Structures are given as C-alpha cells and as structure tokens.
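Regression check, flavin mononucleotide case 324:
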Amino acid sequence: MKTRITTLFGVEHPIMQGGMHYVGLAPLAAAVSNAGGLGVITALTLKSPQALAEEIARCRALTDKPFGVNLTFLPTVSSPDYPGYLRAIIEGGVKVVETAGRNPAPYLPPLKEAGIKVIHKCTSVRHALKAQDIGCDAVSVDGFECGGHPGEDDVPNMILLPRAAEELEIPFVASGGMADGRSLVAALALGAEGVNMGTRFIATQEAPVHDNVKQAILAASELDTRLVMRSLRNTERVMVNPAVERLLEKERALGAALKFEDIIGEVVGVYPRVMREGIMDVGAWSCGMVAGLIHDIPTCQVLIERIMGEAEDIIRRRLVGALA
Ligand SMILES: Cc1cc2nc3c(=O)[nH]c(=O)nc-3n(C[C@H](O)[C@H](O)[C@H](O)COP(=O)(O)O)c2cc1C
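Current build output:
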C-alpha cells in the first residue's frame, strides 16, 4: 500500500508505532521497522542524551530500515535536556521525529536542517493546523479513544479525522483506537494516510515489558480505561486499577482544589515498576480503549502482515463487492 505517509517515511506499510514511555525501546522499534512499519524510540525513557545515543545505535544494529524517535515536550518545570536529545537524534542519523506535547516550533530548525521529517501528535484540528503552519511534515491525529493524553476536547476519531481531512494539506495518520485491518481501512476512508498504534504494540512478543502488562491488556475490555488528571488539564487515559480508583476518589473529593502534589503517589515513578517489574496496581499507566480489541500477543511481523492482509481483503472483497 502506498500513501503520502509511506513515501514520507520511506516505509512499506502505513503503520507507525507511537512513542511509549518505558515501552518504545530499541527491541520494539526495530521489530516494527523490520516488519515494514515505522518503529519509534521514546527519548525521555532514556535518562540522558548519551543513553538515547546508545539506544539509537542499539536499534540501528537490529534494523537497517528507517525508524524514528519520539520527543515529548512535558509541561514540567525542570525541563529535560532537549538540546542534548536533539543532538543525539541528529548525530544518530535518525530520519523521523515524532514530537508531542507542547509546540515543537523552537526545535524545528535544527531538525529540518538535518533533513529529518517531523510528525507532530495533536489532539485537535487547531493544533494540527498550527503544526502545519510551523512547518511539520505530517501530523498524528490522536482521538479521544487514545491511550495516553487525549487532550481536553473529547472529540472521538469518527469526527476528528474527517475534520482534520477537511482542514489539513499535509498528510496525517489516525491515532487512538487503531488495532487491525478494519481500523486501517476506516482511517483511510476518513481521510488519514496511515495509522499510529500505541496500546496494540504493547501486546506483541517484542515489546520489552513484563508479561503482566501484556496479560492485563488482553484481559481488559473497552470499558476498563479511565480519564485521570482532568482538573489539572493534563488528562490521561489509563488502565483502571485500585490506585486509579484511589486517584479518582481524591479528584472527586478535592474538585478544583486538587493539586499535582495530592496525587504524586499514584502517578510518579509508576512506569518502571509497571513495565519492568510487572507490578500492575502500583499507579496509573496509559492504556487505550482499544484494549477491548486486543486478544493475542503476536510478533510485530505477524501483526503488521495481518493488518495489511485484512485491510486488503476488506477493500477488495467487502467494499468493492458492495458496489456490485
Ligand atoms: C503505555 C503508554 C505510554 C505512552 N507514552 C507516550 C509518550 O511518552 N509520549 C507520547 O507522545 N505518547 C505516548 N503514548 C501515546 C502513544 O504514542 C499513542 O499516541 C497512543 O497510544 C495511541 O492510542 P492507542 O493506545 O489507542 O493506540 C503512550 C501510550 C501508552 C499506551
């Protein structure tokens, strides 16, 4: 399948793996890229620019296909060493950067100068248009269903994607709720030129996380995620568990008076304990509603081949057939 996204990234299939804290490391990124998609290393999981440079080298040793790096701009006071991470990306010869969070404008000039393609993840049409205006090559349109941070507008992809298609000139991928060939065909029908998947790629053989995480996703239904931190305007979709219920109880009790310090116990330092140690109830970790559509733990190769096969089948048999 050829779209403006496959051409832009130089990949075989219009399938991208979104940056994921403590999940998007070299083994997963390389597996996705080897299967013809675009794998992505998550910069901030690597605690220094040097560690990111080493992870990029590790990924390059595992694949000769293009892969990307996610650079998430956090709303934190003590900013990570973004210039250092940028240097590691540029010197590491990375071809694609997925930016997310705050406006990436300050970091675009060095990336562009190095010939790196930039795809910015947005949760609204206005942010997508802004990304287009400042010179991003593509956007990833992240609907309300998505795992992680869906923004504050609560517009699901059934509306958000065609709205993006009405307004944007640059190509975009559909993100949030994407799992299989049906998702890909629907995304294409709604105007996207590919898909970005997070949660689906956690439940793969190569995702470097504890098996408990994969089993928790398999066991979950589409009803098992919750939105937390809404009153802090930092909404995150997470897998429900006792810590998340506790967090929501605090949010209900404190209302607008809730401060980040009140919920530190449920949200800080959670990822290494969940993803590496498999302690599932220690706090809030991102997970999409798409968990309800995930029923197995294939290799990335099998998953991507299956998605492409299903998509082709739906287009050729069901859709073209429906016209007869
Ligand atoms: C466990 C987890 C961690 C994530 N961490 C990040 C992150 O660090 N930076 C980022 O830009 N997006 C992050 N995301 C969002 C994904 O890149 C992607 O946009 C999202 O998962 C798409 O929705 P889906 O889960 O329905 O596929 C994370 C998602 C999950 C599930």
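Comparison notes: The radius of gyration is 19 Å. Residues 300-323 form the longest helix (24 residues). No diff flagged against the previous build.
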